Amino acid sequence: MQQQPVILFDGVCNFCDGAVNFIIRQDKNGIFKFSALQSAPAQHLLQQHEDLKKLDSFILAAGGNLFQKSTAALHVLNYLPWYWKWTQLFWIVPRRLRDAVYDWIAKNRYKWFGKKDTCMIPTPELKNRFLNGGSL
After folding, report:
1. Burial call 25-49: b when 16+ CB within 10 Å, e when fewer
2. What is the pLDDT of residue 12?
3. Band of residue 119 on the pLDDT scale cut at 50, 70, 90
């Protein structure tokens, strides 16, 4: 049985929190699971992958693969309903350029959108969509 895709996100970032809430609203079939980067499951994964230790904003674990930055975002958008399929046009933009825009937004996200003191706490209805303990 294939595991559900898991989105790792910065749990104290207001922009990231908004993105997670957007994905939850669009993901009517409950395809995605979520884990804040500050959580034990995310930290366990990051310890296993040296190249991801410095990344602090967005990772998608899906189908045995790890995607980051703009590539992760495009993969997530591909799972969403048909009316988001137009976003797949961004695959034609070279990854270096996509990631440069991603890095610029990520670098400024706290300044532009703010930062919380603690990670979001999911509502009881969404609690099963968030990983709290163990590993991915």
Report:
1. ebbeeeebbbbbbebebbbebbeee
2. 82
3. low
pLDDT attached to residue 58: 83
**Do residues 8 and 35 lie in contact, with contact meaning Cβ atoms separated by under 8 Å?**
yes
Task: Tell me how far CA of residue 113 lies from CA of 11, 37, 63, in angstroms.
Answer: 13, 18, 31
Strands 33-36 and 58-62: unpaired
What's at 131, amino acid-wise? L
- Tokens for 106? 């990520």
Cα 91-76-134 angle, rounded to 5 deg: 140
Q: Residue 71 in contact with residue 95, Cβ under 8 Å?
A: yes
Long-range contacts of 61-68 (CB under 8 A, 24+ apart): 61/5, 61/6, 61/8, 61/136, 62/5, 62/6, 63/2, 63/5
Mean per-residue pLDDT of the chain = 84
